[in-house]
Amino acid sequence: MTQATDSPPSGEIGFVGLGVMGQPMALNLARAGIPLVVWNRTAERSEPLRAAGARVAESVDEVFARSRVVIVMLVDEAVTDAVLGRGGPAFGKLVAGRILVSTGSTAPEYARGLAADVLAAGGRFVEAPVSGSRKPAEAGELVAMLGGDPDTVEEVRPLLAPMCRETVHCGPAGSGVLMKLAVNLYLTTTIAALAEAVHFARRQGLDLETFRAVVDSGQLGSGITRVKVPMLAAHDFTVQAATSDAYASTLLIAEAARAAGIATPLLDLSSGLYGESVRLGNGRLDMSSVLTAIEARTDTAPEPPRTDTAPGPAGD
Questions:
Q1: Is the pLDDT of residue 16 over 60?
Q2: Alpha-carbon distances, residue 187 vs 171, 229, 246, 287 (angstroms)
Q3: Per the count of CB atoms within 10 A, which of 17, 85, 108, 176 is most buried?
């Protein structure tokens, strides 16, 4: 194992990736008074962090040079590898002596491999995928599912408090993302079912505000219904969690399920709908845009057979 050639400042925390989720997460850290140094591939996404008092780095190298702990929230595995220079000589120098906290959703095998590479370079690794979309991220009410060495997890856990309502240690590296996939299976199928229910209610001529009131008054009412039903009713697909990300998550879940010989019939149906929504051009809209795929199926369905037939001759 290689060792870091110099010790970074212990007071600053690094944050790389300021997208739909990363930006509000980092803002909560900055507003909590945590000295923060940030970097994002699209520079203008860093400006709200600058206004909140964070240092905006010129490069990802500067983030790691200044930080002992670096939180990474990037869109997928390929981007994470590219940003970190994984597979090349720069990677070891970047992560040696640092704790890398990966908050994105990845395949379990990827998380285990990244953890092994960080450890081999003389760093430490915690996976911390989060459950929740943009609004919980803005409110600091995410749930983090932690995977990694218990001592390192406990060292990192207090740093996550401004971003997360709960932090749950799920086991070694790979366990956190497996838990996230299980949660996302529930989430993606639930949103698809809710969209179908709203579609059914609308096409049956029901008042959607009354539908919302009934759902929220009963056992099915939740934070999801309170946010998503008004969006679905208004066709407001302002992104909270992107459709393309939801679709990618269904594919990750299916891949993990197939590898373990697990049947996922509801997931498979939902995945098809999210894929259709992406192909309709909704990839960067909210995942509730799955409604449009359901509407498209209705609009292209054949006319139902007539059931009203002329009366036959009277009986004896």
A1: yes
A2: 22, 14, 9, 10
A3: 176
